[in-house]
């Protein structure tokens, strides 16, 4: 059994902060792209635990394109557990949800980011606050089992009060999963260029930490357990697909720019759409492969696993690598435990709340090659 990620690299507008592999959908060879996806998907094992269609924006596809892709997936794969799709609120029509439902999608992940219309405009999003409520209500009315929304904090000009208001509005939707990500300025984005020219003011680090801390506390009193640095769920609604990544398990990836991890090897597909199409037509979309070394795998096991509140199991480490965790990371564990950034018990190792606040610094400690 394995997992599968499918990438739809098209969007109706390009957001100012986005560095994903995505292209404006206008004039793109979308039908040919779906032909190629179908060809690529035909080579992947059919017993699947979790499947995630992301992007880009899968809801940028028109109804016919969406149906063609989902119909193929439903015929081709036996999906045991979770079938998720990303969606933009303004593109998520009742017709699209009905198509998704018909072919087994049981979880929707909505790119909300904020309820503040001025901030949405600044982010370059195509939706407004009202679209969010309509999309969630429609998904619920049409019996989609689980609805998640993505929020962002540390946005230009954003105040703590705005973050608080976003959380109240998110909670009022009565959904079962919330992701909350800090804005990261990525090179080659509009925001990054504006920031470098001094045209963009971001909340300082102290305020960003307050926003994060408030988010954790507010969601905890509304039955949303934090289970990963940026993810919160009501019981039974964690993202099973994302847990595959954090537990460093293997998965397939299909589509332009997607990546996979199969038989100890990571692979990366060609990213530009025309090149991807040509490569699939010639029989292979993979641009690059990398055999993960034992050392790299141990590092990844630690810093991906520690992202989750439950942390990592010492037993899993021993089983995977045939050696006790102390033998490899003994000094690091002692140092981080003494700094109260991690907790070490008989069976598990996990980060403290203080550790999660500076997660990247903690993860760096596990790099064996430094
Ligand atoms: S954030 Fe999402 S919707 Fe916006 S450009 Fe990136 S992939 Fe497209």
TrEMBL record:
CDD domains: Radical_SAM
Alphabetized NCBIfam families for the sequence: hemN_rel
Pfam families: HemN_C (PF06969), Radical_SAM (PF04055)
GO molecular function list: 4 iron, 4 sulfur cluster binding; coproporphyrinogen oxidase activity; metal ion binding
Record GO cellular component, one term: cytoplasm
PANTHER family (UniProt xref): COPROPORPHYRINIGEN III OXIDASE, RADICAL S-ADENOSYL METHIONINE DOMAIN-CONTAINING PROTEIN 1, MITOCHONDRIAL
Protein name (Swiss-Prot/TrEMBL): Heme chaperone HemW
Organism of origin: Macrococcus carouselicus
One Gene Ontology biological process: porphyrin-containing compound biosynthetic process
Primary role: Probably acts as a heme chaperone, transferring heme to an unknown acceptor. Binds one molecule of heme per monomer, possibly covalently. Binds 1 [4Fe-4S] cluster. The cluster is coordinated with 3 cysteines and an exchangeable S-adenosyl-L-methionine.
Cellular localization per UniProt: Cytoplasm
Keywords in alphabetical order: 4Fe-4S, Chaperone, Cytoplasm, Heme, Iron, Iron-sulfur, Metal-binding, S-adenosyl-L-methionine
Domain Radical SAM core: 1-222
Homology family: Belongs to the anaerobic coproporphyrinogen-III oxidase family. HemW subfamily.
Primary site of residence: cytoplasm
């Amino acid at each position: 059994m394995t997992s599968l990620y499918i990438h739809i690299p098209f969007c109706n507008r390009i957001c100012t902060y986005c560095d994903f592999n995505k292209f404006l959908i206008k004039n793109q060879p979308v039908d040919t792209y779906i032909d190629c996806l179908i060809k690529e998907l035909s080579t992947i094992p059919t017993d699947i635990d979790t499947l995630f269609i992301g992007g880009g924006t899968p809801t940028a596809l028109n109804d016919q394109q969406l149906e063609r892709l989902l119909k193929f997936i439903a015929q081709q794969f036996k999906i045991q557990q979770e079938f998720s799709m990303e969606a933009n609120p303004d593109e998520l029509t009742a017709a699209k949800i009905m198509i998704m439902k018909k072919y087994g999608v049981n979880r929707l992940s909505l790119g909300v980011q904020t309820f503040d219309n001025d901030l949405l405009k600044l982010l370059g999003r195509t939706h407004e606050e009202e679209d969010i409520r309509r999309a969630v209500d429609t998904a619920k009315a049409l019996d989609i089992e689980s609805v998640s929304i993505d929020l962002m904090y540390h946005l230009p000009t954003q105040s703590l009060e705005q973050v608080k208001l976003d959380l109240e509005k998110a909670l009022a939707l009565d959904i079962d999963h919330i992701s909350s990500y800090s804005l990261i300025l990525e090179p080659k984005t509009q925001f990054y260029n504006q920031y470098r020219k001094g045209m963009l003011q971001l909340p300082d680090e102290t305020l960003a930490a307050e926003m994060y801390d408030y988010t954790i506390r507010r969601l905890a009193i509304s039955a949303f357990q934090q289970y990963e640095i940026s993810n919160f769920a009501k019981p039974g609604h964690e993202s099973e697909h994302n847990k595959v990544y954090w537990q460093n398990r293997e998965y397939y990836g299909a589509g332009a720019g997607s990546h996979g991890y199969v038989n100890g090897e990571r692979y990366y597909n060609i990213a530009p759409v025309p090149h991807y199409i040509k490569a699939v037509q010639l029989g292979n979309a993979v641009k690059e492969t990398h055999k993960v070394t034992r050392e790299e795998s141990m590092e990844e096991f630690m810093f991906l696993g520690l992202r989750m509140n439950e942390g990592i199991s010492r037993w899993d480490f021993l089983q995977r690598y045939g050696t006790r965790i102390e033998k490899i990371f003994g000094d690091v564990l002692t140092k981080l435990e003494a700094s109260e950034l991690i907790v070490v018990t008989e069976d598990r190792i996990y980060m403290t709340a203080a550790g999660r606040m500076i997660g990247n610094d903690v993860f760096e400690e596990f790099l064996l090659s430094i």
